[in-house]
Design a protein that fits this description.
Layout (H helix, E strand, L loop, with lengths): L1 E7 L4 H9 L6 E8 L5 H8 L4 E3 L9 H15 L3 E4 L8 H7 L3 E5 L11 H7 L4 E8 L9 E8 L6 H24 L6 E2 L1
Parallel strand pairs: 1-2, 1-4, 2-3, 4-5, 7-8
Antiparallel strand pairs: 5-6, 6-7
Bound molecules: glycinamide ribonucleotide.
């Protein structure tokens, strides 16, 4: 089986969706869940499932992203992942970190890329008056939220939507899309999925 490491910063609902999908018939197994925030509740949720976890707090490193990433890389290398899934991981990664894992790293981003790279995607879709919004899973390249899209799922934007309500509607789709993309990616299939 392919070894999968998952990087999170928060509750880890996408991490759980990926892990729950990794049953006996799955081409992957989870070998590590790591977070830049030691308080991320997803770490405890992963540990409760018997998965190895690592907390690499970015704060002691201040602005030194490379030192933070060196510490993270040490934990990742020890787990020997074939694939890394960013799942609500909220740190920008340097080009050298990305280059090390290029072709093996996926990210989930809550917009219909190439629209709304970066933050506050739900508020921006509402602000723009979009009729549709959604989520993308893409390969991670040096361009922020810019790598090849491997899957997208769409949701309607309702006239009375708040960013919170819209985010919840998108999150339901995230939990369906990311496991589908990971399965295919692990089998070497990069054909984009549209939901
Ligand atoms: C998800 O909505 C994910 O798409 C988003 O953070 C949330 C994490 O939720 N990711 C980004 O915004 C990446 N820039 P989770 O911790 O429950 O999976």
């Amino acid at each position: 089986k392919k070894r999968v490491a998952i990087l999170i910063s928060g509750g880890g609902s996408n991490m759980l969706a990926l892990v729950r999908d990794m049953g006996p018939d799955h081409p992957c197994r989870p070998v590590l869940v790591a977070s830049n925030d030691p308080a991320a509740s997803g770490l405890a949720r992963a540990a409760a499932l018997g998965i190895d976890t690592a907390a690499v707090d970015h704060r002691p490193f201040g602005r030194d992203r490379e030192a933070f990433e060196a510490a993270l890389t040490e934990r990742l290398e020890a787990a020997r992942p074939d694939i890394i899934c960013l799942a609500g991981f909220m740190r920008i990664l340097t080009p050298s970190f990305i280059a090390r894992w290029e072709g093996r790293m996926l990210n989930i981003h809550p917009s219909l890329l190439p629209k709304y790279r970066g933050l506050h995607t739900h508020a921006r879709a509402i602000e723009a008056g979009d009729a549709e919004h959604g989520v993308s899973v893409h390969e991670v390249t040096a361009e922020l939220d810019g790598g090849p899209v491997l899957g997208q799922a769409r949701v309607p934007v309702h006239p009375d939507d708040t960013p919170e309500r819209l985010a919840a509607r998108v999150l339901e789709k995230e939990h369906i899309l990311y496991p589908m993309v990971l399965r295919r990616f692990a089998m070497g299939d990069r054909t984009p999925i549209r939901l």
